[in-house]
Amino acid sequence: MEIGELTLENAARSSAGNWQKFESFWWNGVRELDDAENWAIIYTHHRDSTLLDQSNASVIDKTLEPFLNGDDVLAEHHSHWAVGWIDGYSIRVFRDGEITSAFRKYHELAVRLADYPVLDEEDYSERETEATLENLTDAAWRLRSDYELPDDWETKVYAWLSDHDPSAVENTDDQGGYPSEEQLRMAFDALGYREIAVA
Q1: Planar angle of CA 171, 115, 121, nearest 5 degrees
Q2: Which of 60, 151, 165, 174 lies at a C-alpha separation of 20 to 30 Å from 3?
Q3: How high is the pLDDT of residue 175?
Q4: Rounded to 5 degrees, what angle do the CA atoms 5, 50, 184 make?
Q5: Per the confidence metrics, is the pTM higher than 0.85?
Q6: What backbone phi and psi angles, to 5 degrees, belong to 94?
Q7: pLDDT in tens, 19-75
Q8: β-strand 84-92 against 73-80: which pairing, if any?
């Protein structure tokens, strides 16, 4: 079961020392902490994370940030030459036999995620929009030389497609929308962007 599906007490017991079960893994906390067995490593996102994972990781970051000033939460960044990197936190689960406030706060988020996969709808929506705007630039790489485009064409094209062809900007594979050249050309023409005549 996932942490969020467990009671606080059971989640704490199953999480403390979880890093000892990771295969081919070495953690510096073993050397630096006197009670490493009371700590859990929680990963939040990695190099290829989707927009949703990035959004949820951001909420977790903000929630755990106050605890970074104490000594119950440490930021973790682990990398490997073959698979890139993965980020998260090591969290002290037990202190003097009691569950720490830091782990309690993380467990609250885990319970929310077990019930619904999005921690912050507004943040997630903003990331979808930003990713789609970036994708517009990429998708139009061949067409850009065919039209006279204003500096803010991406925003205007995004708005036009949202109104007239929503599927063009619909989130795909949780990486944002990615319109076809045909959809972009339709938007360019509708917005009155002048096509450059070929000599």
Answers
A1: 40
A2: 174
A3: 96
A4: 140
A5: yes
A6: -120, 135
A7: 888 887 778 777 788 899 999 999 999 999 999 999 999 999 999 999 998 889 999
A8: antiparallel
